[in-house]
Write a structure and sequence with these properties.
Layout (H helix, E strand, L loop, with lengths): L10 H14 L14 E5 L2 H11 L3 E5 L14 H9 L2 E4 L9 H7 L5 E3 L27 H18 L4 H26 L8 E6 L3 H7 L2 E6 L9 H14 L3 E5 L5 H12 L5 E6 L14 H15 L18
Parallel strand pairs: 1-2, 1-3, 3-4, 5-6, 7-8
Helix pairs in contact: 1-3, 2-5, 2-6, 5-6, 6-10, 8-9
Length: about 325
């Protein structure tokens, strides 16, 4: 699921377009004058797009490049993506190598216009460095609302720097949104605390939920590594099958942006040993839900994950989530 319907641009084409962008001298410019004018912000993953929209409000048009179900680890930039970056006034992206195949383009753009990685605001001591990550921090920090709250504040500070005339507006929007994120964090602690001690093991398609596990005291394991480019080895799957038997794990989880084949192989391996394990639900990991839905927002995405995990692992949570807005859960 790494490309999109527009077709991936070749590496050579990206290089040519990027070079022309640099030569054209797209400099740092203040927002256009006039009360009705809006500047353009281009973002990458949906989780970044959503917080930028919340903070920027009606002062900017926000264009997100990665849509529903897109895997940012495998995504290849298209010609349209590069053109959008060239035309942007401001750019926000996740960072921490999440947008791996776009890293060089984002770096070049950042030399000529404001381009911020929202994870730069997060304390380095907070970041997880999993074994086998080759020195790269785990980029999935949005799985912990307390960390993503820092990214929201970073967006407000950055837009206030870019557009100081509207600084108070951005900070007011950020504070209102942070109240929602704090409520989400409280909800997660309350409902996931109801999962019984023997059921607090969460197995997912790839290793995207470590921050989630740390925030809510769950043991989290992925069939694949941090990036979906990594392969799921037979030895690793067999180790998970052993753990499922030892811990009597009741459910595993698939992800909306990752193929299900590895989880299916895990389930088949468990069945071959005479046991049964259910799919506890489909979680949002590297992408949010459909645009225009509650699950297509950051708060809705995490509400869905928290509610789904709590219910599948034997805890108690309202079927429609903390605000009663989720699509019906089985």
């Amino acid at each position: 699921m790494g490309g999109n319907a527009r077709g991936a641009v070749s590496a050579a084409a990206v290089a040519v377009i990027s070079l022309s962008m640099l030569v054209s001298g797209c400099g740092r410019e203040a927002p256009a004058a006039g009360a009705s004018d809006r500047y353009t912000i281009v973002t990458t993953v949906g989780m970044v797009s959503d917080i930028v929209r919340q903070v920027a409000g009606d002062k900017a048009q926000v264009v997100g490049l990665f849509g529903e179900g897109v895997d940012p680890h495998l995504y290849k930039p298209t010609r349209d993506d590069v053109v959008a970056l060239m035309r942007a006034d401001v750019i926000f992206y996740c960072g921490l190598m999440l947008e791996g195949k776009m890293a060089s383009i984002l770096a070049k753009v950042g030399r000529k216009k404001p381009a911020w990685a929202v994870t730069d605001a997060i304390d380095r001591d907070y970041l997880l460095m999993p074994e086998g990550s080759e020195g790269h921090a785990d980029p999935h920090v949005w799985m912990d609302p307390s960390a993503w709250a820092q990214a929201v504040q970073m967006v407000a500070d950055s837009l206030s720097e870019y557009d100081p005339d509207n600084a108070a507006y951005y900070r007011q929007n950020a504070e209102a949104y942070l109240e929602q994120i704090r409520a989400l964090e409280r909800y997660g602690r309350e409902v996931l605390a109801t999962v019984p001690p023997q059921g607090r093991v969460m197995i997912t398609s790839h290793d995207a939920f470590r921050y989630f596990g740390r925030a809510y005291d769950l043991t989290v394991l992925g069939v694949q590594g941090l990036s979906t480019e990594s392969e799921a080895g037979l030895q690793g799957i067999n180790s998970l099958i052993d753990l499922i038997g030892d811990k009597d794990v009741k459910a595993v989880f698939v992800e909306t942006s990752v193929p299900q084949k590895n989880i299916r192989a895990l389930i088949e391996g468990v069945a071959a040993r005479g046991r049964r394990i259910e799919i506890g639900g489909s979680l949002f990991s590297d992408a949010m839900g459909p645009a225009g839905t509650y699950e297509g927002t950051y708060v809705g995405m995490l509400d869905h994950n928290i509610t789904t995990v709590a219910r599948a692992l034997g805890g108690e949570a309202p079927p429609r989530g903390m605000q009663g807005k989720l699509s019906a859960h089985e």
